[in-house]
Amino acid sequence: MAVTIAAPLTGTVIPLTEVPDPVFAKALVGPGVAIDPGEVATLTVTAPVAGKLTSLKPHAYVISRQPDQGVLVHLGIDTVHLKGAGFTLRAEAGQQVEAGEEIVVWDLAAAREAEKSVVVPVVVLETDAENLTLAEAGPISSGDPLIRIS
After folding, report:
1. Which GO terms describe its biological process (predicted)?
2. From 114's CA, which of 2, 59, 61, 77 has a CA 20 to 30 Å away?
3. What CATH code is carried by the domain that includes residue 118?
4. Residue 29 lies in a domain
5. Which residue of the set 6, 7, 60, 74 is catalytic?
6. Which residues contact 139 (CB under 8 A, 6 or more apart)?
């Protein structure tokens, strides 16, 4: 059964290879794409798929559709060093979420002041790249199809 993963934010789709972090750029975490939010000041980041919010940190979260497959949304690069500054959690770890539900509101000022990249990788965990169809590079709106798992 095919599953569609929606864009968790509005911005510009870029290939993972352009993410300024070798762990994401080399798809070591898993295959996917990234979204550059552009010059916005604040972002509402949503659940890209329905499932259980199995991990929730200010800068990243994982939603699991089934025990062996999750979707990681990582807000920026090296933003863990911000220790939560600029991130407001709108959900709790362990809860069931629907696609499009608010997870984090992100004020990007703290990340930009610390000179952190605000690019957002969206990665499918525990799957192979050949099972995925990725959105083309270019503009995307929150909720639009981003990744299709076949």
Report:
1. phosphoenolpyruvate-dependent sugar phosphotransferase system
2. 61
3. 2.70.70.10
4. yes
5. 74
6. 11, 12, 13
Query: How many structural domains are present in the chain?
Result: 1
In a domain, 2, yes or no: no
Task: Decide if 139 is inside a domain.
Answer: no
**Token pair belonging to 98:** 């629907």
What is the share, in percent, of the chain residues with pLDDT greater than 90? Answer: 91
- The DSSP-derived string for 22-58 is HHHHTTSS-SEEEEE-TT-SEEEEE-SSSEEEEEEET
Backbone torsions φ then ψ of 130, nearest 5 degrees: -70, -15
The boundaries of the domain holding residue 108 are 7-131
78 phi/psi in degrees, rounded to 5: 60, 20
Q: What gap in Å lies between CA 21 and CA 31, rounded to an integer? A: 14
Q: Which residues pair with 116 in a beta bridge?
A: none
59 is catalytic: no
Element (H, E) at 112: helix 109-113
User: Contact at 8 Å (CB) between 73 and 122?
Assistant: yes
pLDDT digits (tens, 9 = 90+) for 98-118: 999 999 999 999 999 999 999
Amino acid at 55: S
**Contacting residues for 56 by C-beta, under 8 A, at least 6 apart:** 62, 89, 91, 92, 93, 103
